[in-house]
């Protein structure tokens, strides 16, 4: 987490200063301070030969499309059907794990209200912005739906339901879809990216506590299952991410337990139903918000509105343009996606409605969103994760050392220096390229469900592949371009 204060540092170089010197001065402005924005900020500028990486990434995505277009039509189905059974397990501990998670969440909220005011010493901002929003999303994409056990609502809901026999008062109407999750995710993204102080422990404690209470009330009213699938945005988002995990839980025995199997990424989409309009909007919003997080700090974006990145005026001064940019990024991505689907349908002469095609093919956006999410926040996870481990040992700043990590040495060199920058950027670039190649595979497999004729399936995917190549280039550029902390 790099320091981004309301004041920003002054540029002593003058207008004629060379870029390397400016970059050096800019790097000095990123020393940690008590006021921070959120966990996604980067602490250095990577000046690497990015043209080679961008070209290589675009060619890799394009080549994967060409290879898939030449493979047999049943290849995606045969590829995804393969499973390696691992072991069976029971589901009885889920309530206990969730209750423990709720207890930990309550302690974190109390620590946010009464603990240290420093976001790097208080465990609440570090737990939410780093461990949850970065670390858990990564694990969810690798290991499956851990959140279904770890979320802090299921256990309390089961206890209340058992004690009072609570039944849902109302059933959400079908037309509601997951629009509540869309609205709440936008509010979350706005708070994370636009709010002047999302890392302030007390401010974050009030926001997180209020959100838990409102969500719990909605679960008692509509039922845990219905609200978690329609309104609780974290559950909706993380369940979508888990579709691409390497581990799959057998849904047939969900109530009694389950069997864990090893599968290929995206295999759980082989029988996925098309998403509704609200589901399409939710996925596109998830990708566009993370993209805007990177874009909003670039010298390019700030320069459009006359802000000197080396004299950053603080988040309060850019609330208006930040809100505008968040909405604009979503609108542009949604327009480009719909245009690619419409054009692909026209090229293939498809009889399927636009809603069905878009609702099915939007699943291919998930690996892109996951890959960019991991790549964008990787630096924060490596550095702020260490701060989180230390802060959890002394949550109330009382001199405790519960886990023996309160005095641990924070190694920031993992994300600084020429050597670290080289491997870090290559890992980030590799994650983005791999995510887009997986997206091409997913889109190709889903296209065969719409167009069994090979030529039509390939034609329908061409515009979407072009969009993915463009987004690959855009994502790599965001990682490499100078940013204002």
UniProtKB/TrEMBL annotation:
Bilayer-spanning residue ranges: 52-71, 92-114, 126-151, 172-191, 203-224, 280-305, 317-342, 354-375, 422-447, 459-480
Entry keyword set: Membrane, Transmembrane, Transmembrane helix
Keyword presence, Transmembrane helix: yes
Presence of the UniProt keyword Nucleotide-binding in the record: no
Domain of life: Bacteria
UniProt protein name: Fenitrothion hydrolase
Organism: Mesorhizobium temperatum
């Amino acid at each position: 987490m790099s320091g981004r204060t309301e004041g920003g540092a002054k540029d002593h170089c003058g207008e004629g200063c060379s870029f390397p010197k400016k970059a050096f001065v800019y790097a000095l402005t990123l020393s940690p301070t008590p006021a921070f924005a959120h966990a996604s900020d980067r602490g250095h500028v990577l000046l690497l030969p990015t043209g080679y990486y961008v070209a290589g990434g675009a060619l890799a995505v394009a080549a994967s499309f060409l290879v898939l277009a030449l493979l047999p039509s049943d290849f995606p189905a045969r590829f995804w059907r393969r499973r390696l059974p691992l072991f069976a397990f029971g589901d009885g501990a889920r309530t206990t794990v969730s209750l423990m998670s709720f207890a930990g969440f309550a302690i974190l909220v109390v620590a946010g209200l009464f603990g240290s005011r420093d976001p790097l010493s208080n465990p609440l901002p570090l737990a939410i912005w780093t461990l949850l929003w970065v670390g858990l999303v990564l694990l969810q994409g690798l290991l499956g739906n851990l959140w279904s056990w770890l979320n802090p609502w299921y256990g309390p809901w089961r206890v209340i339901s058992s004690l009072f026999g609570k039944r849902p008062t109302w059933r959400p109407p079908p037309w509601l879809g997951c629009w509540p999750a869309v609205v709440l995710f936008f509010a979350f993204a706005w708070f994370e990216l636009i709010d002047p102080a999302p890392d302030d422990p007390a401010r974050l404690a009030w926001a997180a506590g209020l959100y838990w209470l409102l969500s719990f009330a909605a679960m008692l009213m509509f039922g845990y299952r219905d609200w978690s699938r329609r309104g609780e945005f974290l559950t909706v988002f993380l369940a979508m991410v888990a579709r691409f995990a390497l581990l799959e839980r057998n849904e047939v025995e969900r109530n009694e337990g389950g069997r864990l199997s090893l599968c290929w990424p995206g295999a759980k989409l082989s029988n996925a139903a098309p998403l509704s309009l609200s589901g399409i909007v939710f996925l596109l919003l998830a990708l566009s918000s993370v993209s805007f997080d990177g874009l909003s700090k670039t010298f390019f974006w700030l320069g459009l509105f006359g802000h000197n990145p080396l004299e950053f005026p603080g988040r309060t001064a850019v609330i208006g343009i930040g809100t505008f940019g968040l909405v604009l990024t979503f609108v542009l991505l949604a327009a480009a996606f719909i245009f690619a689907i419409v054009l692909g349908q026209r090229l293939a002469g498809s009889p399927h409605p636009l809603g069905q095609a878009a609702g099915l093919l939007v699943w291919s956006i998930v690996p892109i969103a996951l890959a960019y999410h991991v790549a964008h926040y990787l630096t924060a996870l490596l550095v702020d994760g260490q701060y989180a481990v230390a802060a959890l040992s002394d949550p109330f700043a009382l001199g405790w050392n519960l886990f023996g990590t309160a005095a641990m040495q924070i190694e920031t060199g993992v994300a600084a220096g020429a050597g670290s920058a080289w491997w870090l950027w290559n890992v980030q670039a590799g994650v983005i390229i791999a995510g887009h190649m997986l997206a091409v595979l997913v889109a190709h497999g889903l296209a065969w469900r719409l167009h069994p004729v090979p030529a039509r399936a390939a034609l329908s995917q061409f515009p979407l592949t072009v969009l993915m190549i463009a987004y690959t280039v855009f994502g790599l550029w965001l990682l490499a371009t100078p940013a204002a902390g």
